[in-house]
Amino acid sequence: MNDDAFYPIGTPGRPWGDAEKAEWLSRQVRHRSYQSEVLDTIERLRARFDVVEYGRLEYGADRYPLLALRSRVWNDALPTVLVTGGVHGYETSGVQGALQFAEQRAADYADRVNLLIAPCVSPWAYERIHRWNMHAVDPNRSFRENSPAEESAALLRLVAPLRDRVLVHIDLHETTDSDESEFRPALAARDGKPFEPDSIPDGFYLVDDSENPQPAFQQAVIAAVAKVTHIAPADANGEIIGSPVVAPGVIEYPLRQLGLCAGVTSARYKTTTEVYPDSPRATPEQCNAAQVAAVCAAIDYALAHE
């Protein structure tokens, strides 16, 4: 790469210090409201769910309650399903898809599963349409002991009592054009590494757990989502975002090893969804619907194979 392509904060080849992080933070602008777009919806759902405050972020003058929806009638004899969204705050359909599932489809699974839904893990980033938290830390590489991200640590505490009892965990994400134009260049600059351009896959795909792959489960989710939006093809190298495609629309990561949200439980069936909202072939409504379809398909498959 050349200096002209470098991110506008920091010095090429040198990781950010406090000054660079402060400059980055000074550029972050609130674009939308966690209160009106997330908390108000959760408030409407109080009639149907228990609402759990599992943490509170205090970022400067900003205060963000971290809220989860929990099945009102919890039955330890039933399998538990964990749905997470907004680990990366800019990935809108992860948040809105989780809320839409809670509003429109959760009742279909009453008396069949226990539901725990954390729709917006990173509210500061949601408001600023960003990948990182206030401290320039990626929560989705931080789900580990002594986590540097308060958002991640709070979710880990929430799920700790259920860690070995969760059957399904589906973590709702997006891959966007801004990954290539903003977030990956910022990551390279923050860490003092060269930025290597890559391509953005056009369509929906899934990330399975390479340490416990469930190919039939992943394909059931892909089949359901294909009815709503298109599935990302492999690139010329047979890859999606640098990882080999192991089945149509599926790649694998070692989830727990990488500190990813989908690795926070011992669930047999786990996946990370990746919707592509910038495609000319997809609308915001389709992206939300694709997330809902993925959650339903994941639960349906698990229930049918238990």
TrEMBL record:
PROSITE patterns: PEPTIDASE_M14. The keyword RNA-binding does not apply. CDD domains: M14_REP34-like (cd06231). Pfam families: AstE_AspA_cat. Its cofactor is Zn(2+). Residues 30-306 form the Peptidase M14 domain. Belongs to the peptidase M14 family. This is M14 family metallocarboxypeptidase. It comes from Lysobacter yangpyeongensis.
